[in-house]
């Protein structure tokens, strides 16, 4: 059975960039909608229900970070943000608001589409067998519902945060290097700052750890990477 074409919403106030992206992705058989400001973007988002939003940070009526957070609060949509700056400050804030990836302007359209395919691959990966919930004391990770609870309270995680947590928890005790996590969870060979992993780990810790400064679930292995380690409940 052929999967339906993914729906992508492109939000950028620069008509040259917006039209360039739309024309290029139309050739790749995606379903496209576009907007040039935050108000129109939210209206299109609600009507179009996109799988992924390509979102510029600087919009005439809002900041892309805020729009990202609003969209993520409504669905588990993927967000790929566009930034004019090469430093990490935008990325740190964006990942904290729920962004899945970043592309710095000017960008290569082929690379952009590779990033899109990698992001969408996570959503379209379907396992025919029922996946069992992972239960660690007061933490429950349910891959079927893509839900996480701590002390029976639902915890909101972005799509990428959930994928990263579930991956680590599925291999308790195993130490993963940052490039390995990027390849396994992001699904592509990452070129750039590997600290993107650290940013996401920090956000997850704030949401699931009793004390994020003294984590008991996701442990840092200095000079190497991270591991998930705790007692697995028998259930």
How is this structure best described in words?
The chain has helices at residues 15-26, 38-48, 64-74, 89-97, 109-124, 159-169, 178-186, 196-208; strands spanning 7-11, 31-35, 52-56, 78-83, 101-104, 134-136, 139-142, 147-150, 153-155, 176-177, 218-221, 225-228. The protein has two domains: 7-124, Rossmann fold, CATH 3.40.50.2300; 134-228, Arc Repressor Mutant, subunit A (Orthogonal Bundle), CATH 1.10.10.10. It has eight helices and twelve strands. α6 (159-169) crosses α8 (196-208). The two termini are 35 Å apart. The protein has a five-stranded parallel sheet with strand order 2-1-3-4-5, sandwiched between helices. Strands 6-7-8-9 form a four-stranded antiparallel sheet, covered by helices on one side. A three-stranded antiparallel sheet has the order 10-12-11. It is an alpha/beta fold and 235 residues long. The model is unreliable at 124-129 (pLDDT under 50).
Tell me briefly what this model is:
Helices cover 39% and strands 21% of the residues.
Radius of gyration: 18 Å
Shape: globular
Number of strands: 12
The run of helices and strands is EHEHEHEHEHEEEEHEHHEE
Ranges where pLDDT stays below 50 over 5 or more residues in a row are 124-129
Number of domains: 2
Structural class estimated from helices and strands: alpha/beta
Q: From the coordinates shown, what is the CATH architecture of the largest domain? A: 3-Layer(aba) Sandwich
Proportion in helices: 25-40%
Mean pLDDT: 85
The CATH topology of the largest domain corresponds to Rossmann fold
CATH homologous superfamily descriptor of the largest domain:
Response regulator
- Strands of the largest sheet, in order across it? 2-1-3-4-5
CATH class of the largest domain: Alpha Beta
**Residues in β-strands, percent:** 15-25%
């Amino acid at each position: 059975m052929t999967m339906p074409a993914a729906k992508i919403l492109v939000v950028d106030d620069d008509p040259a960039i917006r039209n360039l992206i739309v024309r290029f992705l139309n050739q790749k058989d995606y379903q496209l909608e576009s907007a040039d400001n935050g108000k129109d973007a939210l209206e299109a988002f609600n009507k179009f229900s996109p799988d992924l939003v390509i979102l510029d940070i600087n919009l005439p009526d809002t900041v892309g970070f805020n729009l990202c957070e609003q969209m993520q609060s409504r669905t588990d949509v993927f967000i790929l943000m566009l930034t004019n700056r090469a430093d990490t400050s935008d990325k740190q804030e964006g990942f904290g608001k729920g962004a899945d990836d970043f592309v710095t302007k000017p960008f290569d359209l082929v690379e952009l589409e590779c990033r899109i395919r990698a992001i969408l691959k996570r959503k379209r990966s379907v396992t025919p067998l029922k996946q069992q919930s992972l239960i660690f004391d007061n933490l429950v990770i349910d891959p079927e519902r893509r839900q996480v609870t701590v002390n029976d309270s639902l915890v909101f995680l972005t799509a990428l945060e959930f994928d990263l947590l579930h991956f680590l928890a599925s291999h308790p005790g195993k130490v993963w290097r940052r490039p390995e996590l990027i390849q396994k969870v992001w699904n592509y060979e990452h070129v750039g700052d590997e600290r993107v992993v650290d940013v996401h780990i920090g956000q997850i810790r704030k949401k699931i750890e009793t004390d994020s400064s003294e984590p008991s679930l996701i442990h840092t292995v200095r000079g190497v990477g991270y591991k998930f380690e705790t007692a697995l409940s028998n259930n």
